[in-house]
Specification:
The structure holds two protein chains of two kinds. By secondary structure, chain A is an all-alpha fold. Chain A has nine helices and no strands. Chain B is 41% helix and 25% strand. The chains are: A mainly alpha, B alpha/beta. Bound molecules: adenosine-5'-triphosphate and magnesium ion.
């Protein structure tokens, strides 16, 4: 199986996915369900990771640049920049690829091996559209909110840890996070987030949809979904950063 | 009416079915029998377009299915009801939602009407008061029956049942056989039942196709089946002592 074959089949699957839905209202209620399942249910892990990573970034920044030449606000500034530009959109998306991507591939994969996708096809339902489109729309809508929450909690976690451990003074940190703030950076981060959400859902759905065999293959698809989503996210990150920031 | 002409399907190097010709009349129960692994399910899946055959044609009312465009295929499929060998109920939906699914997707009914229709179908397969259970909470036989209810929900013109009785007790089995026969006669459905169950063959088989090694080995009515001298068919049909007893009493020979 060569890579061109997979790319071709992936594009064809996308074309089917975006074909006209049979019942818009049904698709929409599925989308809302998926937003809950794939988005809201990821809130806990996103919040936890963000707060702790923010804390670690702050403490590490401080201990690495502890020099009288460097101004006190730099720690807050560095925490903000690394959280908004990279940590929240990219690292959290990689984590979501692990959680959401494997979930999508396993769900669609087991529907495939249990002939449930055949059952949809037989009814004349566009199975790709019905199963995949709501997931794409749901993650593209909800992930930006997750990432914004992550940005906030990352910076908040940094402030809390910094102040609690005494490595920074609250006023300096707050000055740092306000200094030279460019709203465009948030826009850039959210564009990345939306693209990554698309990658996670479509790559994972592709892996699930073309699962052949039994439960063992569902496991393999699920692992592949995470690995390929991660690789694609990293590639897209590079391309988007060049296109949007340079 | 469905006509199959020279149907062939291979997976890799394995020719699973080859050169099958058959005519499935409407309003009667057509049965496909054969040993496990002989290609029955593959044949049914080729007929409904889940597998693409590399040889032959499948004609629905004279129109070749695999030559239709996507829209036409979808139109035909909305008129097909299919019970899968493994039931293929949607895990994330309850019993009632499973049966209502095709109605919600295509039916232009009010919600209460859909529920009534679903209940009628569930009652016909004797599934009562199980609306809110999920497929995983049902026994295998119950899943089968819900699968049948879902298959008949849209009043299909073409009904495919892949082993409707496997996993059912003899009594329920007869209820299901009778139901399939009833529906077929009532609505003039073109019905194709895949089965191993000699009881059903004797009970409802009006036109029987015996598939052996991926080929149509024998074809006929159940009366002819009992008197056939086809070796492989006899081995299949009279494998059990009960059937041998039937034959003995019928023909007076061993
Ligand atoms: N998707 C597939 N890929 C490869 N081989 C397949 C596939 N589906 C079926 N086969 C092979 O085709 C043959 C026929 O399978 P099929 O499922 O049609 O048997 P069957 O007659 O329905 O048997 P049973 O009565 O046990 O259900 C088997 O040897 C099986 O291994
Ligand atoms: Mg089978």
């Amino acid at each position: 199986m060569n890579i061109l074959y997979h790319i071709g089949r992936y594009v064809l699957l996308l074309r089917e996915t975006f074909a006209r839905p049979e019942r818009l209202s049904l698709y929409w209620s599925r989308t809302v369900e998926e937003m809950d399942l794939l988005g809201v249910k990821s809130l806990g892990i996103v919040a936890l990771l963000s707060a702790f990573m923010g804390a670690v970034i702050t403490i590490q920044t401080k201990t690495n640049i502890d020099s009288p030449l460097i101004q006190a606000w730099v720690v807050g500034f560095a925490t903000r920049q690394s959280t908004i530009l990279e940590f929240s959109p990219t690292v959290i998306s990689l984590i979501l690829a692990g959680k959401v991507g494997s979930n999508i591939a396993a769900e669609i994969g087991s529907m495939r091996v249990k002939e449930q996708i055949d059952a949809l096809d037989i009814m004349g339902v566009n199975s790709a559209g019905y199963l995949i489109l709501p997931k794409i729309v749901a993650t593209m809508l909800i992930n930006p909110f997750l990432i914004m929450i992550s940005m906030f909690l990352g910076i908040f976690g940094g402030w809390l840890a910094g102040v609690q451990t005494g490595v920074v003074v609250s006023d300096d940190f707050i000055m740092g996070i306000q200094l030279g703030f460019k709203p465009y950076h948030v826009v850039y981060a959210l564009i990345k987030t939306v693209v990554f959400a698309f990658i996670i859902t479509t790559v994972s759905a592709y892996q699930g949809y073309y699962t052949r065999g039994g439960t063992r293959e569902v496991g393999i698809s699920s692992t592949r979904a995470v690995v390929y989503s991660d690789v694609m996210i990293l590639l897209a990150n590079l391309v988007l950063t060049q296109a949007l920031l340079l | 009416m469905i006509v199959v002409e020279g149907l062939g399907k291979r997976f890799g190097d394995v020719q699973v079915i080859d050169g099958i010709d058959a005519v499935f009349q409407k309003g009667r129960v057509n049965q496909i029998i054969g040993r496990s692994g002989s290609g029955k399910s593959v044949m049914a899946k080729c007929m409904v377009g889940l597998h693409r055959p590399e040889k032959g044609r499948v004609l629905y009312e004279g129109r070749s299915f695999h030559d239709m465009d996507a829209e036409e295929k979808r139109g035909i499929r909305q008129r097909i009801g299919m019970l899968f060998q493994g039931s293929a109920l949607f895990d994330s939906l309850t019993v009632i939602e499973n049966v209502m699914f095709p109605l919600r997707m295509f039916g232009l009914m009010a919600k209460s009407e859909m529920e009534d229709r679903a209940h009628t179908c569930l009652k016909r397969v004797s599934i009562i008061d199980k609306d809110q259970l999920f497929p995983a909470e049902l026994s295998g036989g119950m899943q089968k029956r819900v699968g049948i209810a879902r298959a008949i929900a849209m009043n299909p013109e073409y009904l495919f049942c892949d082993e409707p009785n496997s996993g059912l007790d003899p009594q329920t089995s007869i209820v299901i056989d009778d139901l399939i026969k009833e529906i077929t006669e009532e609505f003039g459905t073109t019905t194709i039942v895949i089965t191993h169950d000699m009881n059903s063959v004797m009970e409802t088989g009006e036109h029987i196709l015996f598939i052996h090694k991926g080929r149509k080995w024998w074809e006929g009515t159940r009366e002819q089946l009992l008197r056939s001298d086809n070796k492989e068919l006899n081995e299949f049909v009279f494998a059990g002592s009960l059937m041998r007893e039937v034959k003995r009493s019928l023909t007076g020979e061993e």
